[in-house]
Design a protein that fits this description.
Helix content: over 70%
Structural class: mainly alpha
Number of domains: 2
Number of helices: 10
Largest sheet: none
Radius of gyration: 21 Å
């Protein structure tokens, strides 16, 4: 059996739309009001993946390492928009998200390339970079959302700490630590139970492609470690930048969502 024989053909892809039908039926039954969103998300994913597949076919054929890194940079830009979209009321949210995701991605992907853990070719850098950007984006988004809630709900506590003579860093420290911890829980929990509860995407894909499980595991270990690193770096950077954006030069807390 060849690896490609295990990949669904277009008829199988069309048949898999039945799964979307199941999701829609359940949503309708539960009156979730998500029918349109489910259908739109499914159609959009299909179109996006077709377009990306066509572009990547050309990219892999003609581009080198610089072209692959440029593609990853584009992913970071999109990820910044998405991460900031969950915390629009925060000052400088988009800038902070771009920097946090960018630093998390550059640190992680750069380490993988410098140490020779992955090959510097587009067919490796682009998919690995996509996983790194996704992990960094999720961590940055969760951190910024948590700090946005803190700035709104814990305003009295923060201002009381400031009134006692604490600096903005000291006043926000406990809230920031909790925000970062909350953002990192998904990555930490996934790392703890990998292989016990789920077989993650990289490992599953390799096994479906005919690679022996013990070989696929080596790749998956690297993936889990890189996702953990990307999430941690991005969460801490996002927290620091968001904290600085929440205060003015006199250590006064801005009102979240108000004009600056």
């Amino acid at each position: 059996m060849t690896p490609t024989s295990q990949i669904p053909d277009w008829l199988g892809v069309a048949a898999s739309a039945a799964l979307v039908g199941i999701a829609v039926a359940v949503a309708l039954r539960a009156r979730l009001g998500l029918t349109r969103e489910l259908v739109w998300a499914s159609v959009r994913a299909f179109a996006q993946l077709l377009a990306v597949g066509a572009v990547l076919t050309v990219l892999f054929a003609v581009a080198g390492l610089l072209g692959a890194l440029a593609w990853v940079a584009g992913m970071v830009v999109v990820a910044g928009f998405v991460a900031a979209g969950r915390s629009k009321e925060l000052p400088k949210a988009r800038r902070n998200a771009w920097i946090a995701v960018g630093i998390g991605t550059a640190t992680t992907l750069g380490t993988l390339l410098v140490l020779g853990i992955i090959d510097p070719v587009p067919t490796v850098v682009v998919p690995v970079g996509g996983m790194v950007v996704s992990g960094a984006m999720t961590a940055a988004s969760l951190t910024m959302r948590r700090l946005a809630d803190v700035a709104e709900q814990q305003r009295a506590d923060i201002e009381a700490r400031l009134a006692l003579g604490l600096t903005s860093d000291e006043a926000m420290a406990p809230h920031m630590r909790r925000g970062v911890k909350t953002a990192l829980l998904p990555a930490i929990d996934s790392t703890k139970v990998v292989g016990l509860i789920s077989l993650p995407g990289a490992m599953t894909g390799l096994i479906l492609a005919g690679v022996e499980p013990i070989v696929a595991i080596r790749y998956q270990i690297v993936v889990m470690y890189m996702l953990l690193a990307a999430a941690t770096v991005s969460a801490v950077v996002a927290a620091r930048l968001t904290e600085r954006s929440l205060f003015d030069d006199a250590d006064r807390l801005h009102r979240v969502g108000s004009p600056r």
